[in-house]
Every structure is written in structure tokens, then in C-alpha cells.
From TrEMBL:
Protein source organism: Acaryochloris marina (strain MBIC 11017)
One GO cellular component, as annotated: cytosol
Active site, renumbered: 78 (nucleophile), 165, 167
Record-annotated GMPS ATP-PPase domain positions: 192-390
A Gene Ontology molecular function term of the record: GMP synthase activity
Full protein name: GMP synthase [glutamine-hydrolyzing]
Known pathway: Purine metabolism; GMP biosynthesis; GMP from XMP (L-Gln route): step 1/1
EC number: 6.3.5.2
Keywords, comma-separated and alphabetical: ATP-binding, Glutamine amidotransferase, GMP biosynthesis, Ligase, Nucleotide-binding, Purine biosynthesis
The organism's taxonomic lineage, starting at the top: Bacteria, Bacillati, Cyanobacteriota, Cyanophyceae, Acaryochloridales
Length: 515
């Protein structure tokens, strides 16, 4: 295993993902992880992440300097390198010319860390401070025009530092450098494979759960579906999947999901029809937060009633993923006060989720995985592409895409419009180009003309975005032909809609969903 100590970089998770791409397991831990803990974990290598601070700031985060004496190879990235240099007696100063963006890296020493990295290559920089004097025993491996010490090493002690970010996609040769560190310097074996994960997860689940019964709330998304496959493989009929139909899913999706699971995958699903209850709860409600709250509460109520009816259960399966459990993001320090501030804006939207104080014990076999790894696991277990590659869909579903009051009539309008969007996006072959592509129904009406008749009906807004993780997003430059077809079909086929608009707002300042 490779441990990444997080100093508050927005790229710490990305480093972990890059390491895992080399089939070596990695974990992100706080920079405050003690030496004893590190010794216990016994990683093959340690990477110190970048961070937003200056190593000379009064409350700059620092690791225990004993780390340099563990005999474990260390790679410091950006802030991590500066910290290494400072703690070992070198010098770090504010640079005259800060470097942001692509920089041309010239290699001075192509041995170990930089093997297979081209002599002159592009690496991505983002720093205001620079190393100005190296500690004893260190040498320069590479430089750029503005940074004479862009990569450094103490070969005997296996301590390495790079000022640039090898983990970002703009760094050519970045992955080669990471492979060199992982395989040649740390001597890791490529054992982190999907097959190995599945085998171990099944073993662990069996050991933990034994003959006890497990309840899983299936949503049809890739996480809960993968979880269902994995658990069914591990414990068979001791798993009960429950699907609560709130009535806010896309047209025909509940039926399709149940059919797939029952008939094709042979995993039984308890279908709970709760459409009327949810709709009743939303009667007259227009405030977005109130809608979300009510849907959340109703979900919990139905879930509790149904689990009592079907139970008793000992365990509840949850699709918690690694980004939810990483202990980080408390590393950013306000230099004026020394107080820790959260720079990461992470909104947990799981209003459809469950409260922590339910009486179940939890089983969370996906908690080590990133989303792309869940997809690989799902695929290897036989989950079809239509689920593996499905766009994200919010827990409260179409209810938060109907602005204003949610009624049965307006749900039908949006379902029909949304189906056309899905059909045409699929047909165009552009599905995977978009992070999400969906329709929103507005409560205002506008005038139009159809045949020789005046119409006065609702507009539908198309929201197509590209994104890496949903935290930020850009509006998609969807092909005009696709938009034209969708628009024509919606105004012709969906009664109650006479206008289609396209949302050209990125996130921020907009959000992806309209509510
Ligand atoms: P926003 O609208 O905040 O959405 O830009 C970011 C991503 O999160 C999804 N989303 C949700 N997912 N339950 C979920 O499981 C929710 O309540 C929820 N609200 C938004 C949204 O679709 C986008 O992918």
C-alpha cells in the first residue's frame, strides 16, 4: 500500500486514483497521522500531497519529522516537497515569478524517479514558493526556466520531491513518474485488481454477516446495483433488496429495473408502491428545500415501515464510497488566525438517504472504492452497461426538476419530455459525452402558435452538462441537430409544452439541478 498524507490539496484524491491505476492500493490520510500509525500500516511508500499554505506560515500544517527516518520511500509533491526540504535543513522562499499552469521540464538526471520521462516534457505547476537551497545529500533531478529545483532526490535515503503535479492530466510523463515511484522505488506489486477486490469483499462480507439477514435499499443507480450484485453473490437469499417507488423516477424505469433484477439477474426485489403517499406529501409545496425535506422524511418513514414488515434484519447494506470516508479537508489554515477552514465545498445531497441512528449494523463493502472502481466491479460482476454508465440521477428524482408544485399532471408532462431527451441523446451516440442531460419543467406559461391555434403552455428547459465529479460543471455544447430534434419532438408530442429552452449556465454560479 501507498499512503498519501493530505495537506489540503484539491488533488490528494487524484493522487490516490493515479496510484490505484497502477494496480497498487492507496489511501489518503490526514497529515497528522502519527508515526506509530504509519509504522503499523507499514506502507511501501508515502506521498506528501500539495497544499494551499506556505511552509513558513505560522500555522502551516506539518508532519512528524520522524517520517524521514522510517526507512520508507517518500515522495513530496509541491507543498510536500517544500516541507521535506525545510524540515531537513534546506531553504524555501517566496518566488519572484510564481508558476501556474504548464511548464517545460528539463531533466538533469534520468535515473530512477524520471526513467521513461522524456528529456524535455510538460508538467503542470501551481506554486508561489520555491526551494532555494537543498538539504545536505540532495541533488537536482530536473529544472524549469523559473524553478532550478523542480525535482530533487536524496537517493540513499529514498526521499524524493517534485515541485510540479505529476497526478494531473496535463502533466505528460506524470503517470510514468508515478509508476517509477510505485514499482521501482517502493517495489510494490500490482495486486489491486477488480478480481482481487471482489474475492476479498465477498470473503469479508461472509465473515462479518454469517447467516444473518441484510437489507438493501435499491435505487437502480450503479452503486446500489453493484452492491446488490456483490452481496447476492456473497450471501444469496439472506439479502433482501427493497425498491421504494416514490413516483419520481423516469418513465418506465421502475418497471425496467424490477424486471432486470428479477428476470435477468435472478435477484429478488421487494417492490414498494408509494407514489400516492409522496405526492400527497408534496401537495401545495413549492419551496425547493421543503420539497427535499418532505421527500426525505417520507422515504425514511416508508423504509422503516417496510423493513419492519419484511424483517427482522440484522444489517443494512450501504453504498458508501471512498470519497465519503477520506479523512481530509480539514487541512486548510487561515494564516491570520490559525483556524482550520474547510475550502472544499462538499454538499451531501442524500436526502433520500437514511439517518445514522437506525437500529441496524452497517455493511459497506464498497467503502474502499472510487466511483470508477465501482463501475469496474459492477461490470466484472455482470452488471449491464445501461446501469454501469448511467448518468447520475438525484434521490428526489423528477420532483426537483419540476419547479413549483409537483402534481400528477406535471409529473406526466416531465416524464414524457424526459423520455424524449433520453431517447434522442442515446440515438445520437452522445450519451457518454454528457455528465447529465435532462429536462426541467417550469411553472410559468408563454404564448405560442400551433396550426392556426394560439397556445398558452409551459416551457421545458434542457440542461446538458459536462463535469468530472458534479462539483463543478460546464454547460455542454450539444450538437444543434440533436437540440433541434429534441425540441421538435417535445413541442409536438408532449401536451402542455409549447417551448424548449437551453440552459447555458455553468456551475458555479448555477447548480446542475434547478432545485
Ligand atoms: P447540483 O444540483 O448540486 O448537483 O449541482 C450535483 C450533482 O448531485 C446530484 N444531486 C443529487 N444526488 N440526491 C442525490 O443522490 C440528491 O438529493 C441530489 N441533488 C443533486 C445532481 O444530479 C448532480 O449530479
Amino acid at each position: 500500500m501507498i499512503v498519501i498524507l493530505d495537506f489540503g490539496s484539491q488533488y490528494s484524491e487524484l493522487i490516490a486514483r493515479r496510484i490505484r491505476e497502477t494496480q497498487v492500493y492507496s489511501e489518503v490520510l490526514s497529515y497528522r497521522t502519527s508515526i506509530e500509525q504509519l509504522r503499523q500500516l507499514n506502507p511501501k511508500g508515502i506521498i506528501l500531497s500539495g497544499g494551499p499554505n506556505s511552509v513558513y506560515a505560522q500555522h502551516a500544517p506539518a508532519c512528524d519529522p520522524e517520517i524521514w527516518n522510517l526507512g520508507i520511500p517518500v515522495l513530496g509533491v509541491c507543498y510536500g516537497m517544500q516541507l521535506m526540504v525545510q524540515q531537513l535543513g534546506g531553504q524555501v522562499e517566496a518566488s519572484d515569478a510564481a508558476e501556474y499552469g504548464k511548464a517545460s521540464l528539463i531533466i538533469d538526471d534520468p535515473t530512477d524517479l524520471l526513467t521513461n520521462v522524456e528529456d524535455q516534457t510538460t508538467m503542470w505547476m501551481s506554486h508561489g514558493d520555491s526551494v532555494t537551497a537543498l538539504p545536505e545529500g540532495f541533488k537536482v533531478l530536473a529544472h524549469t526556466a523559473n524553478t532550478p529545483q523542480a525535482a530533487v532526490a536524496h537517493h540513499d535515503r529514498q526521499l524524493y520531491g517534485v515541485q510540479f503535479h505529476p497526478e494531473v492530466v496535463h502533466s505528460q510523463g506524470g503517470q510514468a513518474l508515478i509508476c517509477n515511484f510505485v514499482y521501482h522505488i517502493c517495489e510494490c506489486e500490482p495486486t489491486w485488481t477488480t478480481e482481487a477486490f471482489v474475492e476479498e469483499a465477498i470473503r469479508e462480507v461472509r465473515a462479518k454477516v454469517g447467516n444473518k439477514r441484510v437489507l438493501l435499499a435499491l435505487s437502480g443507480g450503479v452503486d446500489s446495483s453493484t452492491l446488490a450484485f456483490l452481496l447476492h453473490k456473497a450471501i444469496g437469499d439472506n439479502l433482501t433488496c427493497m425498491f421504494i417507488d416514490q413516483g419520481f423516477m423516469r418513465k418506465l424505469e421502475p418497471e425496467r429495473l424490477i424486471k432486470l433484477f428479477r428476470d435477468q439477474f435472478h435477484i429478488p426485489v421487494e417492490y414498494v408502491m408509494a407514489r400516492d403517499r409522496f405526492l400527497e406529501r408534496l401537495n401545495g409545496i413549492t419551496d425547493p428545500e421543503e420539497k427535499r425535506k418532505r421527500i426525505g422524511h417520507e422515504f425514511i418513514q416508508v423504509f422503516e415501515e417496510e423493513s419492519r414488515r419484511l424483517g427482522p434484519f440484522d444489517y443494512l447494506a450501504q453504498g458508501t464510497l471512498y470519497p465519503d470516508v477520506i479523512e481530509s479537508a480539514d487541512t486548510n489554515v487561515d494564516p491570520a488566525t490559525g483556524e482550520r477552514v474547510a475550502v472544499k465545498i462538499k454538499s451531501h445531497h442524500n436526502v433520500g438517504g437514511l439517518p445514522k441512528d437506525l437500529r441496524f449494523k452497517l455493511v459497506e463493502p464498497l467503502r474502499k472504492l472510487f466511483k470508477d472502481e465501482v463501475r469496474k466491479v459492477g461490470r466484472s460482476l455482470g452488471l449491464p452497461e445501461e446501469i454501469v454508465n448511467r448518468h447520475p440521477f438525484p434521490g428526489p428524482g423528477l420532483a426537483i426538476r419540476i419547479i413549483g408544485e409537483v402534481t400528477a399532471e406535471r409529473l406526466n408532462i416531465l416524464r414524457d419530455a424526459d423520455l424524449i431527451v433520453r431517447q434522442e441523446v442515446n440515438r445520437s451516440g452522445n450519451y457518454s459525452e454528457f455528465w447529465q442531460a435532462f429536462a426541467v419543467l417550469l411553472p410559468v406559461r408563454s404564448v405560442g402558435v400551433m396550426g392556426d391555434q394560439r397556445t398558452y403552455a409551459y416551457p421545458v428547459v434542457l440542461r446538458f452538462v459536462s463535469s468530472e465529479d458534479g462539483m463543478t460543471a460546464d454547460w455542454s455544447r450539444a450538437p444543434y441537430e440533436l437540440l433541434e430534434t429534441i425540441s421538435n419532438r417535445i413541442v409536438n408530442e408532449v401536451k402542455g409544452v409549447n417551448r424548449v429552452a437551453y440552459d447555458i449556465t455553468s456551475k458555479p454560479p448555477g447548480t446542475i439541478e434547478w432545485e
